[in-house]
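Re: duplicated header lines in exported C-alpha cells

Our pipeline writes sequence and C-alpha cells for each protein into one text file. With two proteins the header for the second block appears twice in some exports. Here is an export where it did not happen, for reference. First protein block:
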Amino acid sequence: MRTPLLALAVGALLATGTPAAAVIVPQHGIGGVSIGDTETKVRAVRGVPVRVVNGSNEFGRYRELRYRGLTVFMQGLRRVTAVSTKARAERTRTGVGVGSTETALNVAVRGLTCSTFGDARSCIIGVEEPGQRVTAFFLGTSGRVQRVVVGIVID
C-alpha cells in the first residue's frame, strides 16, 4: 500500500476557497494547472499566489504555490509535481469532486481502486509506483471526498 507515500510526496498540501474555473482532469491536473507545467505557466494561468512556501524534505527542495481553492506543489522547484484541492466547486467532467460519496466516485470515474490504510480511505486512479501519475480522492470519516490530488508518485 503506497497511499501514505503519495501523501508524503505531495507534502502538506492545503487549499481553501473556490476558483473561477473549477475543473479536475484525472491524471492531468486541476483548475487549469497541469502536471509538468513550469512556475511561469502556472502564474500565467492562475496569477499571483496568495502564498508561496519554500522548503525541503527527504526528496530535496520544493515550492508550494497556494491559491484560493488550489495548491500547486513543485518538488525540485522546476515543474509541477502535484496539484491539490479541497474546494467543493472543483469537479471532473462527470461531476464528482470534494463532497462526493465513494458510491458516486465509483459510478462516475473508471479505473478507481479504493482502499483503507489505518484511519484513511482513498480511491485512486493509476499505479502507485515511483514516477507514475495518480489521481487520489481522499475520503473523510463521513465517507465523502475531502481532498483531491493529481500528482506524480515520488517514492
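Second protein block, exported in the same file:
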Amino acid sequence: MRLLLLDEHRAPVEEPYIVSLLGWTKEQYLRDAPESRFCEFVRGTVIMPSPVRAEHQSRVLFLSWLLSGFCEAHAGEVILTGPAALQVAPDIIREPDIFVLPADQAHRARGVPVTEAVPSLIIEVGSRSTMDIDLVDKAAEYAALGVAEYWAVDGSGRRLHRHLLGADGRYAVDARESGRLDSVAVAGFWIDVDWLWRDPLPPARECLAKIEGG
C-alpha cells in the first residue's frame, strides 16, 4: 500500500494507493466530497483509495444481489451499498461496500450520512490498498458501534474474515477459505465461500435459489 500525499514530479503512480487529504471538517466533507467515488472521513482526514478493480466490484454486486434478493423475500432488512455513507462515530464516516439495516431501523436509512442506525451485518470487499484498514481500523470501529457481524473479504488472499461480536464487545474472528458460511445476523442467509473465488463468478440467480433452498 502507498500513502499518496503529493506527486510533485508528475511521475506515474502505481496502484494500490490511498490519498489522504488533511485538515477537513465533517461539514466540509459532507458538502464537498465527491458522490461518484468512495471517500471516507476519519477524524479530520478525508481518505480516498485508488479506483477499485473490476473483480472487486463484481464481488460487491454479487453479494449485494444475493442479500437483496434474500432479504426482500424473507427478512425485510434494508440493503445499502457504497458510496452510501454511515456514521460510525461522531468524527468517523465510513462508506461500507454493503451494510444491512434491520427491518425496524429501515426508517433511518435517510440522508447523508446514515445516522442513529446500527447495521446487523457489514461487508467490506478489500483490496491490496485497504485490507489492513478493513481488518484493523474498521473492525475496531464496527465493534464499537455494535455491529453484530462483519465480513472482510480478501480477494487476493482468497479468505473471508468473519467477525462475530461477543458479549465483551470484541470480535471473535475466523477466516474461511472455502465451505458454507451461515450468517448469524441475517437468519437463514448463507453463502458457499468458494463462490467468491470463481472466475467468472457463478450466476447469482442460481446461487440465490440454493440459499433459499436451505
